[in-house]
Amino acid sequence: MPEPLKRKDRNGVPYVRPPEIEAWLVKLEGIEVAERLRQFSVMSRKSVGHVPSEVLVHFLRRAWAEGAKGDFEKIFRILMDRVEQSLSSAVSDSRMAGARGIREEITGRFAERIAKDCRGGGGLMDFFEIRFDKALAAIRTSVLRQIGPASVDTVPLGTDREDALEVSAEVEAAAADFLGGDPSKLDDPAFRLELTAAIDALPNDQRQVMGLLLQGFQIDSKDPNIMTIARILQCDERTVRNRRDRACKALRAVLPEDAL
Questions:
Q1: Where are the domains of the chain?
Q2: Contact of 248 with 189, CB cutoff 8 Å
Q3: What's the pLDDT tens digit per position in 140-161?
Q4: Using alpha carbons only, how large is the chain's radius of gyration in Å?
Q5: Which residues of the chain carry a pLDDT beneath 70?
Q6: Fold (topology level) of 169-259
Q7: How many angstroms separate the most distant Cα atoms in the chain?
Q8: How much is the pTM?
């Protein structure tokens, strides 16, 4: 059986892998390494036999612990390819100025986290074995808040690509403001497309604010090291809030009443 994870949440409860991830680990432990690596290389989530990234993280860490350098390097390359694929959608060149540099910073921090974990970082990669997409989204949000794009349109909500990620926590939190406090409505792919189209139709100043909100940026901060919407758009906090409020009002007017 796979070893238990080391870290605990803020309430002191040990991290536990989801049952489906544990099932994958048990299944793949019983096959040859070459076949396991072949299955890892299946990139598309829609493909039969696609292995969740949480599972790749587990076997990456195990390969390091066992001194299997060749296996570690192969799994690492596959995992980095997955990260780069997801970032090409979440941090798109067509929607964000300086996107390439931001993607490189995110992948660099992800790789650095793996390196620290391998050196005995006290379970730094544990959460990646539970919710890989959410853990990667946290790194992405941290980088965006610190670096910030030169300009932003809207954030893709992940419905038109087969490799699209689940809706991230920061998108849910921002969307709750104009979804009547119920971000679960974003679970509907058709509604997400409609929402994206509605945001794209907003005036430029409102569209920029909504795009940044949906990428997890906070409106303002006293910390000069945090990149905020007010700093990116070079305006005061009140202006940002006014643009946000006008955008939310406009979205409520054009989206179906039963969706709000």
A1: 19-146, 169-259
A2: no
A3: 878 877 766 655 555 555 433 4
A4: 20
A5: 95, 147-189, 256-260
A6: Arc Repressor Mutant, subunit A (1.10.10)
A7: 60
A8: 0.65
